[in-house]
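Researcher: Structure for this, please.
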Amino acid sequence: MRNARSARRVLSLRGDGAMRSSIVSLTSLLVLLAAIAHAQNVFSDQQAAELIRLAHQNFWGKAKLSTGQAIHPRDERERQTLPIPYADAVRVVQSSVPAGLGAWCNVDWRSYYQAFMKAERQKPWSEKQIAFIGMLFGLAQGNLQKAMSTSPCTAKEREGVTKLLANAKKRL
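Model: Predicted structure, token format:
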């Protein structure tokens, strides 16, 4: 999220010198979008680890199966074990970025999320693992949306994020 933090800081410079600020803002967003397009991580390793820890901490007894039933571990060992491999958890965190930016810009991010989850359901995950993936995705998405919300999304940024979401959806 180093790039997102940089973009957020620069985005907050609007005001006097609006032309210069909007150019800097657009440049920052383009750097962020380029990082995403080239599969560079937006969230740092530490940020991803913290999001994974928080999702795991809040998963058992709070997440629900498709039946509406709360998810509980079979035993203490399952409670202590991450429901999916750590590398996949990091991938989920990084995959939430287009949706986080979409939520920030108030554009349709749900179709990307639905396509992402459809792709995950085609993998050999259990229903518990799918629930964890959805919870982790939402937590990371909301974290990025909140970080970016310190300044409004401009029309040019909205256009870039819309394209980013379309491209991310095609890569699923």
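Researcher: Any notable elements?
Model: Residues 45-170 form one domain. DSSP finds nine helices and no strands in the chain.
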